[in-house]
Amino acid sequence: MMNQKTKLISICAWGSIVLFVLRCVISWKDIIEGVSVYDLFGYASEAISISILFTGLYEKFLWRINPFEKTPKLAKRYNGTLKSDYDKSERRATLEIRQTLILIHITLITDESKSRSLSASIDEILGEVQLTYCYLNTPKSEYRERSEIHYGTATLSITGSKTLEGQYYTDRKTRGDMTFISEL
Fold first, then answer.
1. pLDDT at residue 1 in the model
2. pTM here?
3. Rounded distance, CA 143 to CA 16, Å?
């Protein structure tokens, strides 16, 4: 993810420079006749504004349609199961993902609780693309006697855009397996 941020900032900066040069070329006649510093600042602010606007649109939406973008395009919703070593029972769960080019927010919902990501990233680890996130799990009050509020980490392998599977572990010393398939 850090690479994506650096790359996006670099593209924005170079875009601003190219747009500034183009603006100066378009106004070459005015520059030769005597341009003021105020005009040059105006050209620079136009270039920066356009570059920032395009970068923002790209980061939020346009990256999904770029065939050269390598970041996996995850679905918004996955249904699946998780099996805990705590009680060996399998629970149905829904994984909701809000993703931009550089940010990912994950919410996992079961009948008993809801987990929200505190941090998340997609990285290639040992040749495998993985979604890793840390979360805070908040059980419904009726389950808190046996399941207190806790932190955890999940690592899910991204196999295609439809399947996520992996493991989780918590600060309660429990762990388990998770499998999700997209609704699409």
1. 56
2. 0.83
3. 54
Of 53, 56, 72, whose CA–CA distance to 64 is shortest?
Answer: 72
- The CA-CA-CA angle for residues 52, 58, 64, to 5°, reads 175
Q: How far is Cα 134 from Cα 121, in angstroms, rounded to an integer?
A: 10
Helix (H, G, I), strand (E, B) or coil at 80: strand
Give the Cα separation of 75 and 91 in Å (integer).
21
Mean pLDDT of 23-46: 81
Provide the strand spans (E) within the chain: 77-84, 90-99, 104-109, 113-125, 128-139, 150-159, 163-170, 175-182
- C-alpha 166/C-alpha 5 separation (Å) is 26
94 neighbors 79 (Cβ within 8 angstroms): yes
Q: Residue 5: pLDDT above 80?
A: yes
SS3 category, 87: coil
Q: Rounded to an integer, what distance in angstroms lies between the CA atom of residue 182 and that of residue 14?
A: 37
Q: Give backbone dihedrals phi and psi of 145, rounded to 5 degrees, phi first.
A: -65, -35
Q: Which of 102, 128, 129, 132 is nearest to 118 (CA)?
A: 132
